[in-house]
Amino acid sequence: MGKIAASDHPGALELFHKILLASTAIPGAFPPVMIDVEANGNRYQEMHVDGGATAQIFLYPPVLKVADISKQRGIIRQRRLYMIRNARLDPGWAEVERRALSIAARAITSLIQNQGIGDLYEIYSQTQRDGIDFNLAIIPKDFNTSHLEEFDTEYMRQLFQSGYDLAIKNYQWKKLSPGL
C-alpha cells in the first residue's frame, strides 16, 4: 500500500481506495470490489474481498525463513511479534435450529474460528523456527457480553473497554499458541 500511495500514477489514489475497501468486504455482508488488471496484454476485472476469506491472520509466507535470510545478510537483531486477535479461542456454545440454513451458518462460523486458530499455530511455528518472540492477545474467556448482530455497537464498546482495562492492568501476553 505504501508503494501505491507513493506512486505518481494517475490511478494510484483510486486503487488505494479500492484495496482498502476490498479489505473490509466481508463475503455475504458487503459487495466484492472489482479491480481492473492487465495480464499478457489482456484486460480483466479481478474480484476482491476481505483477506479473511483465505487467512484470518498472516505473518509472512511460511517458506520464507527469516532466520536464515538474516544470517546470510549478517543482520542480527531481536525480533518480537505482537498480535491482537479480535476473537475468543474457546468454542462458543450456540443453539442451532434443525434447519439447513442455520446448520450451514453455524458450520461456517466454526470453520472461520478454526481457520484462525490454525493460522495462529502456523505463525507460532514460524516464530519458533525463526527465533521471534511470540506475543498474543485474545478476547478473554471471561468476556461474556452477548451480541445479537455482527455489528453491535454496544458489544463493541464493552469489548473495547475490556481490552483497555486489561492493558491498563499490564496485560500478560500469551507466549504460546492456543492449546500448547
From TrEMBL:
Superkingdom of origin organism? Bacteria
Q: Which InterPro entries match?
A: Acyl_Trfase/lysoPLipase (IPR016035)
Could you tell me what this protein is called?
Patatin-like phospholipase
